[in-house]
Design a protein that fits this description.
D-Maltodextrin-Binding Protein, domain 2; PstS family phosphate ABC transporter substrate-binding protein; alpha/beta; globular; 13 strands; signal; ten-stranded mixed β-sheet; single chain; PBP_domain; Phosphate_ABC_transporter; 11 helices; three-stranded mixed β-sheet; 2 domains; 38% helix; 307 residues
Length: 307
Amino acid sequence: MLKYSKVFGLFIFVFLFAMCNQKSKNDAQKETILKGAIDVTVDETVKQIVDDQVAVFEGTYYDAKITVKPKSEAEVINDLLNQKAKVAITARDLTAEEKARFEKSKINPRVTPFAQDAIAFISNKSNNDTLIALKTVIDFMQGKADPRIKGLVFDNPNSSTVRFMKELAKIKDIPKTGVFSFKTNDEVIKFVSENDGMIGVVGVNWLSQPSQNTTDLIKKINVLSVKGLNSNQYYSPTQNDLAEAKYPLARDLFIINCQGYSGLGMGFASFIAGDIGQRIVLKSGLLPYKIPGRKLKIRNEIIKDNE
């Protein structure tokens, strides 16, 4: 009797195992490069451009559903490394150490650059001086007081803007006095619009495509032109200055796909790096990784309208 019980138990186990495998196969078949549902974890400083890309992608492929989850850069990278996120958009490439961790887990991330963004300095509209030297900001971050700056305001202590500026200033920690942080770029814009003498540090995408909460606040701030460390000229975070590599605070944007199969993540990456996605980037005020071409139709003769 015990022998039959063991055989029956083994049969049940094999049956359940087969059912689970079949369920996994069915789930995998539900997702392709153009249909299914995925979460995309996004660096909060570039959320606006990603929302635009998702809206057009979903409007083109009705069976696709992409949920955007904005987080700080540190959270985005940690989610990828801990396999809590399969697709992410960042303002930097993976480091050699991070790539080694993925390789150890037998994961081969596909990293696709798709745009050039920039970090912008903003001030209150009452400040008539719209120029600032990058060295002045770096000196302030190194703890050197400057009468022209009452304080620096960041979006989040773990954000890509903080990491970017810390690397430029070659410091491990930001000063305990004179440097403030909130949670979002919206809050930085609001604070600077209400406080004279404060310099806000935000992703330029939030200025070229302000949210509903900041549309009116944008009118109360100045976007400062910046003089680089090895330059005598001041440049603005415009498409033209980015394209000519003149603005000193430019940075590349990437979509990182760790799905490991031909799923919706691959389809979305191909979309934003393709012609339509690059045109969306161009319209947003950022610089596309590949400038979309223009087709000209040349006629041999002028066709006059009938009088």
